[in-house]
């Protein structure tokens, strides 16, 4: 079963530590939600998990090593004069896989050493990511979302069209592990319903960052909380509602433990004061 595991991830920007020993693991079929206040390091963790950013320390492993991981960020990264079809192919990882396959084909034609293995690997990745039927699937998804792939470049789309195009990329992506950073942004009710349905039925392992609590409650089965002070992660099983209940109970236990500590400290202080006073009286 494909799995992605991040262990002991530490990373800093300009001397400020944003991650300090953070962990994250996801396998096929898993639904993991990441929660933390803004600016805590959630997106940084996904960038490191996808391989788009190198951690200062810690390990990121894919088992097997051929596990395909795609990160779709809240920034839609629309490029000047890029067609809608090209955008979808790039965001789904197929354009990159096609480029690697073309390069491997050229090496094979030149009979370079290792070309056979490189071609086989590139071919398998292109197939796994859905390259063989992407144009047909893209047309169907675009029509369903009221997008015309031949109408214009991405730079000419309206805000609503941009949101639907970003959703189309999520619906078309076929990696083993899918990392979604705020995928609910700017979606209307219909778009949210389509996204939730897709997240529920996709065979991929999915990690979600979202401030939409209702969406998290309807999709994830584990929550990873990134603490804004320690910059470490704590995992809760059972979905969003269980996380809220368990976190509240944990905070109550922490408050009770601190109260018990304060009471004990005050008792010890009082005892020590009494002993000092008793000692002065007897010395006098």
Structure description:
This protein has helices at 42-50, 84-91, 94-109, 115-128, 134-144, 159-172, 189-201, 213-219, 239-283, and strands spanning 3-13, 16-27, 31-35, 57-63, 69-72, 177-181, 205-209, 222-226, 233-237. Strand 8 and strand 9 (233-237) form a beta hairpin. The radius of gyration is 25 Å and the shape is elongated. The protein folds into two domains: 3-93 and 129-237, Rossmann fold (3-Layer(aba) Sandwich), CATH 3.40.50.300; 244-284. The model has no long low-confidence stretch (mean pLDDT 89). It is an alpha/beta fold and 284 residues long. It has nine helices and nine strands. The strands form two sheets. A six-stranded mixed beta sheet has the order 5-6-7-3-8-9. Helices cover 48% and strands 21% of the residues.
Provide a short characterization of the protein structure.
With 284 residues, this protein is an alpha/beta fold. The chain contains nine helices and nine strands.
CATH topology type of the largest domain: Rossmann fold
- Number of helix segments? 9
Radius of gyration: 25 Å
Total domain units = 2
Task: Look at the structure and give the mean pLDDT.
Answer: 89
Helix content: 40-55%
The CATH architecture of the largest domain comes to 3-Layer(aba) Sandwich
Structural class: alpha/beta
Query: What's the N-to-C terminus distance?
Result: 79 Å
Principal-axes geometry comes out as: elongated
Helix and strand string, N-terminal first? EEEHEEHHHHHEHEHEEH
CATH class categorisation of the largest domain: Alpha Beta
As laid out across the biggest beta sheet, the strand order is 5-6-7-3-8-9
> In percent terms, what proportion of residues is strand?
15-25%
- How many strands in all? 9
- Detail the poorly predicted runs: none
CATH superfamily of the largest domain: P-loop containing nucleotide triphosphate hydrolases
**Biggest sheet: strands, sense, closure?**
6 strands, mixed
């Amino acid at each position: 079963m494909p799995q992605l595991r991040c262990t002991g991830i530490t990373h800093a920007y300009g001397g400020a530590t944003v991650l300090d020993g953070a962990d994250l693991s996801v396998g096929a079929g898993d639904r993991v939600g990441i929660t933390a206040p803004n600016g805590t390091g959630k997106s940084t963790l996904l960038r490191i998990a996808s391989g788009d950013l190198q951690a200062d320390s810690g390990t990121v492993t894919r088992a097997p090593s051929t596990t395909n991981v795609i990160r779709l960020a809240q920034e839609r990264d629309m490029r000047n004069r890029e067609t809608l079809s090209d955008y979808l192919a790039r965001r789904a990882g197929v354009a990159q896989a096609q480029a690697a396959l073309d390069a491997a084909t050229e090496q094979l034609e030149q009979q370079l050493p290792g070309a056979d293995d490189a071609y086989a690997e590139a071919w398998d990745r292109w197939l796994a990511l859905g390259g063989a039927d992407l144009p047909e699937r893209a047309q169907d998804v675009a029509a369903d979302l009221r997008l015309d792939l031949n109408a214009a470049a991405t730079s000419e789309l309206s805000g609503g069209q941009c949101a639907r195009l970003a959703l189309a990329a999520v619906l078309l992506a076929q990696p083993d592990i899918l990392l979604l950073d705020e995928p609910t942004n700017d979606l209307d009710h219909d778009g949210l319903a389509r996204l939730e349905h897709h997240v529920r039925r996709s065979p991929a392992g999915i990690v979600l960052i979202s401030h939409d609590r209702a969406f998290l409650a309807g999709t994830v089965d584990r929550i990873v909380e990134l603490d804004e002070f320690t910059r470490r992660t704590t995992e809760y099983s059972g979905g969003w509602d269980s996380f809220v209940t368990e976190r509240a109970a944990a905070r109550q236990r922490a408050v009770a433990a601190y109260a018990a500590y304060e009471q004990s400290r005050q008792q010890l202080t009082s005892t020590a004061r009494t002993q000092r006073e008793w000692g002065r009286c007897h010395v006098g």
